[in-house]
Structure formats: structure tokens, C-alpha cells
Specification:
The chain has 88 residues and is mostly helical. It has a domain of 61 residues. 61% of the residues lie in helices and 0% in strands. This is Ribbon-helix-helix protein CopG domain-containing protein.
Length: 88
């Protein structure tokens, strides 16, 4: 069993409010939601590292490959250099 430690972080108010609302809707604690988000972020960095290594060895993915993967995965395709649009 892992141990936990209480830490203090500073968040923009709108981020904190949104995260607290999401935690309440999901029936989990704010701490659990933040922990889950950090774990997801760290896993994303591992995937980024693997992808960079893969592409260094095998070449970059083509736009067609990326579009097909997005479609198969059911996620919107965002071309390089285009950040996700902020939610209104």
C-alpha cells in the first residue's frame, strides 16, 4: 500500500473550481482527482518519450497515419502547431 502526504499547491481559481466541480460530479475527493490527473500527465510523458524514440528509429508519422489513428480512436485530429481550442 502506498503512503500519501499532504502538499500545498497554488492553482488558478477557475481551475480549482472546475476541478472541484468535476470531483463532486464523479463522487471522488478533490485530492483523488488531482492525483489521477498527475498520474495521467506522467503517463503521457512516458508515451511522448516512447513516440520520440520510435520516430527517431523509424521516421516520423505521416499526416495520413495520424489522421487515420485519430479517426480509429474516436478523437479529433489536431494538426501540428494547433493547440486545442479552449472551452467557452
Amino acid at each position: 500500500m502506498s503512503t500519501t502526504e499532504r502538499v500545498t499547491v497554488s492553482l488558478p481559481d477557475e481551475v480549482r473550481q472546475a476541478a472541484q466541480r468535476i470531483a463532486a460530479e464523479r463522487g471522488v475527493s478533490f485530492s483523488s482527482l488531482v492525483s489521477e490527473a498527475l498520474v495521467s500527465w506522467m503517463r503521457g510523458r512516458l508515451v511522448d518519450t516512447w513516440l520520440a524514440e520510435y520516430q527517431a528509429e523509424h521516421g516520423a508519422f505521416s499526416e495520413e497515419e495520424l489522421r487515420a489513428l485519430a479517426e480509429e480512436s474516436g478523437v479529433p485530429y489536431l494538426p501540428p502547431g494547433r493547440a486545442a481550442e479552449p472551452a467557452a
